[in-house]
């Protein structure tokens, strides 16, 4: 779905802990996998505002971490959070396309919802290139290292109402079984895997829509953009609740290189 990018909505980090459907319980499991045994270096490709990386560094106090994301606003937030939590001396965040970070492998790597770094541009509405992402990630994980890989999948057979607000095509994503095959073909061992629950998705989508609600709460109902924001809220609600809820999934894999 496309919106007027000139409209300044509240940042997503004010409504969401994670830029992915992820519960605190699941996040704790991912952090434990990445931090025990303690890594020396942690790399987060597509780190967003760095929440998971910062939690790993808190859990593994000897580790150093690097987050990479193309969104400068997210990187600014990540740096601010690293400073607030006393981690700025061990965490660096770079605003750059992910392809530029591939010369520095690590023994613990995170890549959640960022396979598009190695595939066609999102605006081309092409199928996600999981294989290219997994090949690149294999080179970023040091021998014996660990990877938390999270990516969108089809949890159920896609139908027109589900695909229309996305890329509009049934082959945009794989099933979990097909993705697992590609993971193994790339040379990873699957230690654990699970899918985000519908409840995790509900929380994520509600937080995503909350920025529209919060904008409307602080602006006059007759503001020139108020109608547009109300439409955006309703379009997003309908796209999820009447479209891809229960069809679009998020798979989380704990892998060893």
What does this structure look like?
The chain has 257 residues and is an alpha/beta fold. It has eight helices and seven strands, in the order H-E-H-E-H-E-E-H-E-H-H-E-H-H-E. It has a seven-stranded mixed sheet, sandwiched between helices. Helix 4 (130-140) links the parallel strand 4 and strand 5. Helix 1 (24-35) packs across helix 2 and helix 7 packs antiparallel against helix 8 (226-244). The longest helix is centred in the last third of the chain and has 21 residues, at 198-218. It is globular, with a radius of gyration of 18 Å. The two termini are 36 Å apart.
Ranges where pLDDT stays below 50 over 5 or more residues in a row are 1-5
Radius of gyration computed on alpha carbons:
18 Å
Return the string of H and E elements: HEHEHEEHEHHEHHE
Largest sheet: 7 strands, mixed
Quaternary organisation: single chain
Structural class, judged by helices and strands?
alpha/beta
What proportion strand?
15-25%
Helix and strand topology:
Layout (H helix, E strand, L loop, with lengths): L23 H12 L5 E5 L5 H9 L4 E6 L2 H13 L6 E5 L10 E7 L17 H11 E14 L5 H4 L12 H10 L3 E7 L2 H21 L7 H19 L3 E9 L1
Helix pairs in contact: 1-2, 7-8
